[in-house]
Design brief:
There is one protein chain. The protein is an alpha/beta fold and 238 residues long. It has a single domain, classed as Rossmann fold (3-Layer(aba) Sandwich), CATH 3.40.50. 29% of the residues lie in helices and 24% in strands. It contains five helices and nine strands, in the order H-E-H-E-E-E-H-E-E-E-H-H-E-E. The strands form two sheets. Strands 3-2-1-4-5-9-8 form a seven-stranded mixed beta sheet. The chain has a two-stranded antiparallel sheet with strand order 6-7. Strand 4, helix 3 and strand 5 form a beta-alpha-beta unit. 34% of the residues are buried.
Length: 238
C-alpha cells in the first residue's frame, strides 16, 4: 500500500469543506432572495436599476455575486467592488458596468439606483465608523431601497474561518487567537468586523442620512435553528 500524502489529504479535505460551505451559503442566499423580493416587501417590478456593493471577481463559488446574478434577470445591474473586475473576463453574466472603489466611501457622483444591494460586505469594511459611512453611502446612492445582509455574530459557526464559537469572545481576544492560529488576514479589524442585529440597527439609525429612512425591517435566516444571517431592508423617502 502506498503511503498517504498528508499534504494532499489536507488539501482535499479543505476543498471538500469549502464546497460544502459554499453549497450552504448558496442555499441561504437563495432563501434570502425569496424572503425579501416579494410583493409586500420589495417588488421586483419597481426595480429597474441596481447597484451591487461588494461584488467579487471570484467565479469558483456559486455563492459569489449571487444576488447580482439573480437580479440581472429583471434589472440593469452595476457592480461596485474594491477589486479590479473585468466584466469580459471575470463575470459570466451581463452587467451595465463596473465601478471600483471603497464601499465606505462611495462617491455621490455614482448616481442613484432603485436598489442598492450589499450582501456580506459590511463586515469587511473596517471599524464601526467605516460601517456607518458605508450605510450612509448606500443610502446616498439609492432611490427606493437599500438591502444589507451580514452573517450573525452569534451563530456558533464563523463562516469565514470555518471555526466555531471563538468569535463569541471579546473582539480583542478573538483577533489575538486568530493571529496565533495563522488567520492573520481575518484577525485585522479592517478585514473582518462581525456584527449582531442590535449593533447593525444602531449603525443604520446613526448614519448621516438617517432622515431619508422611511422604514427599516429586519429579516432573519436560520441555520440549524439558529439565526445565521441578518437582512435589513431599508425603504427610503423620495
Amino acid at each position: 500500500m502506498s503511503p498517504i500524502n498528508e499534504n494532499v489529504y489536507t488539501v482535499n479535505l479543505f476543498n471538500r469543506l469549502d464546497r460544502f460551505v459554499d453549497s450552504v451559503v448558496t442555499r441561504k442566499r437563495d432563501e434570502i432572495f425569496s424572503r425579501i423580493f416579494r410583493p409586500d416587501l420589495v417588488r421586483l417590478d419597481t426595480v429597474d436599476d441596481v447597484l451591487d456593493v461588494g461584488s467579487t471577481k471570484d467565479s469558483d463559488h456559486r455563492s459569489s455575486n449571487f444576488f447580482a446574478r439573480k437580479l440581472v434577470e429583471n434589472a440593469r445591474v452595476t457592480l461596485f467592488s474594491d477589486q479590479q473586475i473585468d466584466p469580459q473576463r471575470d463575470i459570466d453574466f451581463p452587467v451595465s458596468g463596473v465601478l471600483i472603489g471603497d464601499a465606505s466611501r462611495i462617491d455621490s457622483a455614482t448616481g442613484r439606483y432603485d436598489l442598492v444591494m450589499s450582501s456580506a460586505t459590511i463586515e469587511h469594511v473596517g471599524t464601526m465608523d467605516d460601517q456607518r459611512r458605508m450605510i450612509s453611502c448606500c443610502i446616498g446612492a439609492a432611490r427606493r431601497y437599500v438591502i444589507i445582509t451580514t452573517p450573525n455574530r452569534w451563530h456558533p459557526l464563523e463562516f469565514h474561518t470555518r471555526l466555531p464559537f471563538l468569535h463569541w469572545l471579546p473582539r480583542r481576544w478573538h483577533r489575538r487567537i486568530l493571529r496565533s492560529m495563522g488567520f492573520s488576514f481575518f484577525a485585522q479589524e479592517a478585514n473582518l468586523n462581525l456584527l449582531d442585529a442590535k449593533e447593525l440597527r444602531t449603525i443604520i439609525e446613526a448614519n448621516d442620512r438617517r432622515e431619508r429612512i422611511k422604514s427599516c425591517r429586519l429579516e432573519t435566516i436560520r441555520l440549524l435553528g439558529i439565526v445565521s444571517n441578518l437582512v435589513f431592508v431599508i425603504e427610503l423617502r423620495d
